[in-house]
Amino acid sequence: MTKNIVLELKNICKNYSTKTETLEIIKNLNLQIEEGDFISILGQSGSGKTTLLNLIGLLDSPTSGNIYIDNENISVNSSNIDLVRNKKIGFVFQFHYLLPEFTALENVMIPALTQDYSKKKEIEKRALELLKEVGVDHRANHKPTELSGGEKQRVAIARALINNPKILLLDEPTGNLDNETSEKIFNIFKQINSKKRQTIITVTHSRELAEISNKKLFLKKGILSE
Ligand SMILES: Nc1ncnc2c1ncn2[C@@H]1O[C@H](COP(=O)(O)OP(=O)(O)OP(=O)(O)O)[C@@H](O)[C@H]1O
Ligand SMILES: [Mg+2]
User: Fold this and answer.
1) Going by DSSP bridges, is the β-strand pair 215-220/38-42 parallel, antiparallel, or unpaired?
2) Which of 45, 89, 94, 128 could be bridged to 172 by S-S, CB 3.0 to 4.6 A?
3) Residues with beta carbon inside 6 Å of ligand 1?
C-alpha cells in the first residue's frame, strides 16, 4: 500500500533566544504523518509541545529545517501563508478563542466566509451540520458567553473543521473540562478520525486521549520518540 504523507518535518530545529541564552527547544526533529493518522504528543510541561504544534500549524517558523504539507514545502514567510493555513489546518487551542460578538454558528462560519463570501448559504448549512455532529446545534444562536465550557470547546472543534482541513491540530483540547465532558469530546475525535479518516495531531496530558490515538510520541529534551 502506498503511503499518503500529509505532513513531513525535515530536520526541524527551534531555538528561543533570550537576553542571556539560547534555548534549544526542538532539536533536529524528523516526522512523517500519514493521512488518517491520529497522533498524540506527550511530554512534560515545558518540553516544547505547544512550540512544535505551532510550527506544524504554521503559526511560527522553525529556526532551521523544512515543513511539507501535501508534499509542498511551506514557508511561514510566504505571502499566501494565511490562505494555506486557513485551508490546510484546523486548530483547537486549550482555550477556545471564539469571537465574543458572534453567535456559535457565525463563529463556525467565519473561516469559510473569509475565503468565499458568495457561498454563504452553503457555508451556513455545513456549519449547522458540523454543530450537529459535535452536539451543540441546539445552541447555534448563542453567543460564547451564553455557552458552557464544553459547548464552547465543541463550537471551536466545529470551527476547526469547517474548511475540511488536511490536518486537525489539538492543543490540550479538553484541558479545562471535567472528565465526562472530556470523554464526549474524545469520542468526537475518535469518530471523525475513524469515519472520515481525518488526520489528527493532539498534544495532551490526558491518558484517555492518548489511548484513543493510534500512535503516541514523547517529546523530551527536544527529541521526539515513540
Ligand atoms: N517566546 C518564547 N521565548 C522564550 N522561551 C520560550 C518562548 N515560548 C516558549 N518558551 C520556552 O520554551 C519551552 C517550551 O514551551 P512550550 O510552550 O512549547 O511547552 P509545552 O510542552 O507546551 O508545555 P505545557 O505542557 O506546560 O503547555 C518552555 O520552557 C518555555 O519557557
Ligand atoms: Mg503547551
Assistant:
1) parallel
2) 94
3) 16, 18, 23, 25, 43, 45-51
Work out which ligand 1 atom sits closest to the CA atom of 205.
Answer: 25
| pLDDT bucket at 83, cuts 50 / 70 / 90 | confident
Q: Any idea which ligand is nearest the CA of 44? A: 1
Bridge-based pairing of strands 72-74 and 64-69 is: antiparallel
What confidence score (pLDDT) does residue 1 get? 60
pLDDT of residue 90: 95
Question: Residue whose CA is closest, atom 31 of ligand 1?
Answer: 46
Domain layout of the chain by residue ranges: 37-60+82-225
In a mutational test of the pocket of ligand 1, which residue from 25, 94, 218, 224 has the highest number of ligand atoms less than 8 Å from its CB? 25
Instruction: Considering the domain delimited by 37-60+82-225, tell me its CATH architecture.
Output: 3-Layer(aba) Sandwich (3.40)
CB atoms within 10 A of CB 52: 29
Contact by Cβ (8 Å): 107, 99: yes
**Which residue has its alpha carbon closest to ligand 1 atom 10?**
16
Query: What does the pLDDT read at residue 202?
Result: 96
Protein residue whose Cα sits closest to atom 29 of ligand 1 = 46
The closest alpha carbon to 90, from 23, 162, 25, belongs to: 162
C-alpha cell at 62: 522553525
